[in-house]
Amino acid sequence: MEEFICRISITSLRATRAVLIYIQSNSITETAKALGHTDVSLDLLSRYLPPPILAFFQTRWIRAFQRGIICMAMKDSKYLLKVSNFQTMDELHTFLDNNALKDIPQSMRDPESIKNPKPARSSPEDKGAADRVVISLDVGILTSLLSIEEAVRLSPRPDEISAKALYWAKLTSLLVNDITDGNEFDLQDYLETARAQIDSAQMEKLIYATAA
Questions:
Q1: CA distance 123 to 116
Q2: CA quadruple 137, 143, 149, 152: dihedral sign
Q3: Distance separating alpha carbons of residues 2 and 113, to the nearest angstrom
Q4: Residues 153-176 pLDDT 10s
Q5: Which of 31, 76, 85, 186 yields a CA-CA distance of 20 to 30 A from 22?
Q6: What distance in Å separates the CA atoms of residue 208 and residue 42, rounded to the nearest whole number?
Q7: Model pTM?
Q8: Which residues of 27-42 are buried (b: 16+ CB within 10 A; e: fewer)?
Q9: Cβ atoms of residues 100 and 72 within 8 Å
Q10: Is 103 within 8 Å of 128 (Cβ atoms)?
Protein backbone atom coordinates (compact mmCIF):
# COMPACT_ATOMS: atom_id res chain seq x y z
CA MET A 1 0.00 0.00 0.00
CA GLU A 2 2.77 2.41 0.87
CA GLU A 3 4.37 1.73 -2.50
CA PHE A 4 1.22 2.87 -4.27
CA ILE A 5 0.71 5.87 -1.99
CA CYS A 6 4.22 7.06 -2.79
CA ARG A 7 3.28 7.17 -6.46
CA ILE A 8 0.34 9.50 -5.87
CA SER A 9 0.99 13.18 -6.39
CA ILE A 10 -0.84 16.27 -7.58
CA THR A 11 0.90 15.91 -10.93
CA SER A 12 -0.09 12.25 -11.38
CA LEU A 13 -3.71 12.95 -10.36
CA ARG A 14 -3.82 15.87 -12.79
CA ALA A 15 -2.48 13.69 -15.61
CA THR A 16 -4.95 10.88 -14.82
CA ARG A 17 -7.84 13.34 -14.80
CA ALA A 18 -6.71 14.75 -18.13
CA VAL A 19 -6.71 11.26 -19.67
CA LEU A 20 -10.23 10.55 -18.34
CA ILE A 21 -11.61 13.83 -19.71
CA TYR A 22 -10.01 13.21 -23.09
CA ILE A 23 -11.41 9.68 -23.34
CA GLN A 24 -14.90 10.86 -22.32
CA SER A 25 -15.02 13.93 -24.55
CA ASN A 26 -12.66 12.98 -27.41
CA SER A 27 -11.81 16.69 -27.38
CA ILE A 28 -8.40 18.24 -26.88
CA THR A 29 -10.18 21.59 -26.41
CA GLU A 30 -12.20 20.29 -23.47
CA THR A 31 -9.11 18.63 -22.01
CA ALA A 32 -7.09 21.83 -22.28
CA LYS A 33 -9.92 23.81 -20.68
CA ALA A 34 -10.14 21.35 -17.76
CA LEU A 35 -6.39 21.69 -17.21
CA GLY A 36 -6.70 25.45 -17.09
CA HIS A 37 -4.85 26.13 -20.33
CA THR A 38 -5.90 29.34 -22.08
CA ASP A 39 -4.87 27.97 -25.48
CA VAL A 40 -4.83 24.49 -26.99
CA SER A 41 -1.22 23.36 -27.18
CA LEU A 42 -0.37 19.82 -28.25
CA ASP A 43 3.06 20.23 -26.69
CA LEU A 44 1.50 20.96 -23.31
CA LEU A 45 -1.16 18.26 -23.64
CA SER A 46 1.45 15.66 -24.55
CA ARG A 47 2.79 16.02 -21.01
CA TYR A 48 -0.50 14.66 -19.69
CA LEU A 49 -1.78 12.43 -22.48
CA PRO A 50 0.25 9.31 -23.32
CA PRO A 51 1.25 9.36 -27.02
CA PRO A 52 -0.44 5.96 -27.78
CA ILE A 53 -3.81 7.26 -26.52
CA LEU A 54 -3.51 10.52 -28.45
CA ALA A 55 -2.47 8.66 -31.61
CA PHE A 56 -5.34 6.17 -31.27
CA PHE A 57 -8.05 8.83 -31.10
CA GLN A 58 -6.53 10.97 -33.84
CA THR A 59 -6.40 7.92 -36.13
CA ARG A 60 -9.97 7.09 -35.16
CA TRP A 61 -11.16 10.57 -36.19
CA ILE A 62 -9.41 10.23 -39.54
CA ARG A 63 -11.09 6.86 -40.15
CA ALA A 64 -14.48 8.31 -39.21
CA PHE A 65 -13.98 11.20 -41.64
CA GLN A 66 -12.92 8.84 -44.42
CA ARG A 67 -15.93 6.62 -43.79
CA GLY A 68 -18.21 9.66 -43.99
CA ILE A 69 -16.80 10.49 -47.43
CA ILE A 70 -17.31 6.89 -48.59
CA CYS A 71 -20.90 6.80 -47.29
CA MET A 72 -21.79 10.05 -49.04
CA ALA A 73 -20.23 8.85 -52.31
CA MET A 74 -22.05 5.50 -52.14
CA LYS A 75 -25.34 6.70 -50.65
CA ASP A 76 -27.36 5.62 -53.72
CA SER A 77 -25.50 2.35 -54.21
CA LYS A 78 -26.67 -1.11 -53.20
CA TYR A 79 -23.15 -1.69 -51.88
CA LEU A 80 -23.43 1.02 -49.19
CA LEU A 81 -23.67 -1.43 -46.28
CA LYS A 82 -20.65 -3.42 -47.43
CA VAL A 83 -18.32 -0.50 -48.08
CA SER A 84 -19.33 1.40 -44.92
CA ASN A 85 -18.28 -1.59 -42.78
CA PHE A 86 -19.89 -0.37 -39.58
CA GLN A 87 -18.43 -2.20 -36.59
CA THR A 88 -20.81 -1.06 -33.83
CA MET A 89 -24.38 0.10 -33.42
CA ASP A 90 -23.07 3.44 -32.14
CA GLU A 91 -21.26 4.03 -35.44
CA LEU A 92 -24.37 3.19 -37.45
CA HIS A 93 -26.57 5.27 -35.14
CA THR A 94 -24.32 8.31 -35.64
CA PHE A 95 -24.38 7.86 -39.42
CA LEU A 96 -28.18 7.61 -39.57
CA ASP A 97 -28.67 10.41 -37.05
CA ASN A 98 -26.50 12.73 -39.13
CA ASN A 99 -27.90 11.76 -42.52
CA ALA A 100 -31.51 10.69 -42.06
CA LEU A 101 -33.11 12.76 -39.32
CA LYS A 102 -33.82 16.48 -39.60
CA ASP A 103 -35.79 18.63 -37.18
CA ILE A 104 -36.88 15.69 -35.03
CA PRO A 105 -38.83 16.43 -31.82
CA GLN A 106 -36.90 16.25 -28.54
CA SER A 107 -39.13 13.45 -27.30
CA MET A 108 -37.82 11.17 -30.08
CA ARG A 109 -34.12 12.04 -29.83
CA ASP A 110 -33.28 9.65 -26.98
CA PRO A 111 -33.06 6.00 -28.08
CA GLU A 112 -32.74 4.86 -24.46
CA SER A 113 -36.26 6.13 -23.72
CA ILE A 114 -37.65 3.19 -25.70
CA LYS A 115 -36.36 0.75 -23.09
CA ASN A 116 -36.61 3.18 -20.15
CA PRO A 117 -39.62 5.41 -20.76
CA LYS A 118 -40.09 8.48 -18.57
CA PRO A 119 -43.27 10.44 -17.84
CA ALA A 120 -43.88 12.88 -20.66
CA ARG A 121 -43.39 16.55 -19.93
CA SER A 122 -44.34 18.30 -23.12
CA SER A 123 -43.54 21.93 -23.73
CA PRO A 124 -45.29 24.24 -26.24
CA GLU A 125 -42.31 23.75 -28.55
CA ASP A 126 -42.60 19.98 -28.37
CA LYS A 127 -46.34 20.12 -29.04
CA GLY A 128 -45.76 22.28 -32.08
CA ALA A 129 -43.13 19.90 -33.46
CA ALA A 130 -44.77 16.63 -32.44
CA ASP A 131 -46.51 16.23 -35.80
CA ARG A 132 -43.46 17.12 -37.86
CA VAL A 133 -40.49 14.87 -38.47
CA VAL A 134 -38.39 15.55 -41.55
CA ILE A 135 -36.45 12.53 -42.80
CA SER A 136 -33.90 12.69 -45.59
CA LEU A 137 -34.15 9.50 -47.61
CA ASP A 138 -32.34 7.79 -50.43
CA VAL A 139 -31.97 4.14 -51.41
CA GLY A 140 -28.84 3.68 -49.29
CA ILE A 141 -30.38 5.02 -46.08
CA LEU A 142 -33.61 3.07 -46.67
CA THR A 143 -31.59 -0.10 -47.23
CA SER A 144 -29.77 0.44 -43.93
CA LEU A 145 -33.01 1.08 -42.07
CA LEU A 146 -34.83 -1.90 -43.56
CA SER A 147 -31.85 -4.14 -42.81
CA ILE A 148 -31.90 -3.08 -39.16
CA GLU A 149 -35.66 -3.57 -38.93
CA GLU A 150 -35.46 -7.09 -40.38
CA ALA A 151 -32.48 -8.04 -38.20
CA VAL A 152 -34.42 -6.93 -35.11
CA ARG A 153 -37.62 -8.65 -36.21
CA LEU A 154 -35.88 -11.97 -36.95
CA SER A 155 -33.53 -11.91 -33.98
CA PRO A 156 -33.45 -15.11 -31.91
CA ARG A 157 -32.30 -13.02 -28.89
CA PRO A 158 -34.85 -10.19 -28.63
CA ASP A 159 -34.07 -9.47 -24.97
CA GLU A 160 -30.47 -8.61 -25.85
CA ILE A 161 -31.20 -6.08 -28.59
CA SER A 162 -29.80 -2.61 -27.91
CA ALA A 163 -32.02 0.43 -27.40
CA LYS A 164 -30.57 2.12 -30.50
CA ALA A 165 -31.42 -0.86 -32.70
CA LEU A 166 -34.98 -0.94 -31.34
CA TYR A 167 -35.23 2.80 -31.92
CA TRP A 168 -34.32 2.57 -35.61
CA ALA A 169 -36.43 -0.55 -36.15
CA LYS A 170 -39.50 1.17 -34.73
CA LEU A 171 -38.86 4.33 -36.75
CA THR A 172 -38.42 2.24 -39.90
CA SER A 173 -41.74 0.48 -39.38
CA LEU A 174 -43.53 3.82 -39.07
CA LEU A 175 -41.65 5.21 -42.04
CA VAL A 176 -42.50 2.26 -44.30
CA ASN A 177 -46.18 2.56 -43.41
CA ASP A 178 -46.12 6.26 -44.22
CA ILE A 179 -44.44 5.71 -47.58
CA THR A 180 -46.74 2.82 -48.49
CA ASP A 181 -49.89 4.77 -47.62
CA GLY A 182 -48.70 8.01 -49.18
CA ASN A 183 -48.58 9.42 -52.69
CA GLU A 184 -44.84 10.00 -52.99
CA PHE A 185 -44.10 7.71 -55.91
CA ASP A 186 -40.39 8.48 -55.87
CA LEU A 187 -40.18 7.29 -52.27
CA GLN A 188 -42.17 4.18 -53.13
CA ASP A 189 -39.65 3.42 -55.87
CA TYR A 190 -36.82 3.94 -53.37
CA LEU A 191 -38.57 1.57 -50.97
CA GLU A 192 -39.01 -1.13 -53.61
CA THR A 193 -35.34 -0.92 -54.58
CA ALA A 194 -34.19 -0.91 -50.95
CA ARG A 195 -36.29 -3.97 -50.13
CA ALA A 196 -34.45 -5.90 -52.83
CA GLN A 197 -31.13 -4.96 -51.20
CA ILE A 198 -31.90 -5.80 -47.56
CA ASP A 199 -28.96 -7.44 -45.81
CA SER A 200 -30.09 -8.32 -42.28
CA ALA A 201 -27.06 -10.56 -41.79
CA GLN A 202 -24.83 -7.50 -42.07
CA MET A 203 -26.79 -5.81 -39.29
CA GLU A 204 -27.34 -8.85 -37.09
CA LYS A 205 -23.90 -8.52 -35.50
CA LEU A 206 -24.55 -4.86 -34.60
CA ILE A 207 -27.98 -4.89 -33.00
CA TYR A 208 -27.16 -6.47 -29.67
CA ALA A 209 -26.34 -4.47 -26.55
CA THR A 210 -22.73 -4.75 -25.45
CA ALA A 211 -21.71 -5.35 -21.89
CA ALA A 212 -20.82 -2.17 -20.01
A1: 20
A2: negative
A3: 46
A4: 999 999 999 998 998 999 899 889
A5: 85
A6: 38
A7: 0.51
A8: ebeebbebbeeeeeee
A9: no
A10: no
